[in-house]
Amino acid sequence: GAPGSQLATGAMRAAGLLLLLLVWALLQLAAGQQCQPSSPGAVLRFTDRHAEIRVPALHRVPSSLDPLYGLVRRCLDLIQQNPLPTELLRTALNDPGSVQTSQVVQYELGYVVCAAVALLFTVAVPVAGMCFCYCRSRRRCGGRLRAHRRSLGCRRRCLLTCLSFTSLVILVSVTCAFVTSQRVRGQMEPGLGAVPSTLRTLRQHLANVPQGVQMVVDKFEVPRKQIISDLGGLSRSVGLSIHSQLKAMTYAALADLQDRAGDLQTSLHHLQILHRTSRALAAARAELEPALRERRSRVVALLDDPRCTSCASVLGRAQGLQLGADYAKVPSVEKVLEALAGLPRSDFAEMIRQGNGTFNSIPELAVERMAQVIQDLRGDLARTAGKVQSIADGFPLPDYTRPASEALLKAEERSQPYLREVERFERYRWIAGTVLCSIILLILACNGTGMALGVYGLAKREDPSDYECRGEAGAKFLLVGVGLAFLFSWLLILLVFATFLVGGNIQTLVCRNWVNQEIYKFIDTPGNLPPSMNLSRQLNLRRDSNLSSAYRECKSGAGLWEVLQLHSSYDLDEHLKPPKYTADFQKRLGDFTADLGDVRLLRSEGRQDLETFARSGLDEVDYGSFQEEMKNPVVQTSLPGLARNLEGLQKMQRNGTVAGRLAAEARALWHLQNSTVQSQEALVAKLGESVQFLSRLAPHLKERVRRTLATTASVEARLPLQAQQILRQ
């Protein structure tokens, strides 16, 4: 029972597999191609709604009966060991009338042997049943009461054990038969329904391919929107990029220019201080000279007076009381001041502020100047979208999909009668199998009841040789079971053989050769199939292609374009080359210019001021002479030191007149120091600051001014060029 039901399962499913060959192939063919982004930096996200049309795969759920199914397949491999009968199939498909019975018998030899066994069983069982009935009518086959012997009890127990074991085996088998029969019915219904459903889905797939092409073309909207979005902020982004990349160079030039303007202002200030201070010091020296000479003569005369006690020690310092530095000897800076007269004629601070403001306004200026260019780019993009749409409008896909769609429609229409027949056969098989399995259960019930009544009757009677009604009833139940077995077992054998023959041939002829791909070789061999079954032609495959290669490509994930080799008729790569649609766009980008205006960091009058500053002769002044004179004090002898010495001598004098004169001379020296010498020393200190600044600046003045002018000119020249380069990038 179980093998027969399993073969019924194989028969129905194998019949569906033959029709699903085309289904699976076209399902794989209809899979869309995926586009990969050319740049990993910017990924555009596309949706593929066309891929939502799916055909769910049907799979048998593994169960505890899988070992039984494996046993059946091994049994079929043992019965049918012949390879695919290509010659027999070619003759049967092209000229059915010329098929020889001997060829069929030779290929089906294993099933012929099984048929002989089934026929023998079918004949032998009813004959044996009739013989048994005849013997029973003559009371020669059991039914007589035997004398009780010890051996009779052993025989009864042996028969009871064998009958119980046999009934148990039959019970397990009929249970497997019920389960497998129900599973066949449960799997057959969705399998049969999947055939037309799959064919309709595939036709829908092919019908939707033009819409899929249009959908792919519509996906140009994704990059178009991205480009429109980018163009919307492009001008300001370009301006910010130009500002960001050039600000270091520009700010450095402006800072350098500000330093030179500061040098000009500061140098002019220190030159004026240098000129005024040196003249003031020369005039002050001329005024100090007679007073200092008079003071020296009086102090020397006083110290040389014999009445002056211990005055000889200070006499030497008094004699050295004379002027020191002579600033009338230092070079004049009047020519330099005359050269710088009227400078600066330009407002460097305002000039730098304007240059800084002009450079910082580049982002806003880019938005204004690029508005028309952005508008032209959007127009080019709209024209590009129209060119892309022409791909879908001129795509000759229906010429290639119509034959396959028609083949699927014919396959669906022709499969309907066969599917109905298969469904009807399956219904009859299930009814017959259920009835026969129920009869087997009835036989098992009779056997069980008979054995139970027999054992119960033997246990209750006192004399084992006595006749007992319960034992008689048990014997009748056993006889009923035997009669039912003789009447219906041959029908069950016929049902098992029928499913075995159909399912086994489908398994060995179709399924096994499908797995080892022999069936593909048979289909692809010219002349094996009649013209009406030429799948390659119906699928519009090229002459150099076949179903085997198409199926392998589909199974490996290839798309419809590769499998049907449409590139030989329609060069898709040529139609999808981006330069074909973006040439105008790229050309406009290549010619992209936007006049951002001149960024003037230094006007002509400012340049002239710096050039005049560099030519003024500031670096030709001998600042060393100033520094040498400043090393000399205003007075060679320190007036405060000499005054303190005179005050010390005053305290040592015995002569009041001398002491008074010493005190008067000390006060005069202090007055001269505070009123004249100290102010000159302050002027010398001020002069030193100016000399120090100018001496540091002068050696590098011309080079710094030259570098500043060159840098400023270079930045002004490079700004527009680099701005255009950055803009194109």
Automatic annotation (TrEMBL):
Domain of life: Eukaryota
Annotated membrane topology: Multi-pass membrane protein
Keyword set, alphabetical order: Glycoprotein, Membrane, Signal, Transmembrane, Transmembrane helix
InterPro entries the record matches: Prominin
Compartment(s) where it occurs, according to its Swiss-Prot or TrEMBL record: Cell projection, Microvillus membrane
Pfam families cross-referenced by the UniProt entry: Prominin
Transmembrane in keyword set: yes
Name listed for the protein in its UniProt record: PROM2 protein
Species whose genome carries this gene: Certhia brachydactyla (short-toed tree-creeper)
Gene that encodes it: Prom2
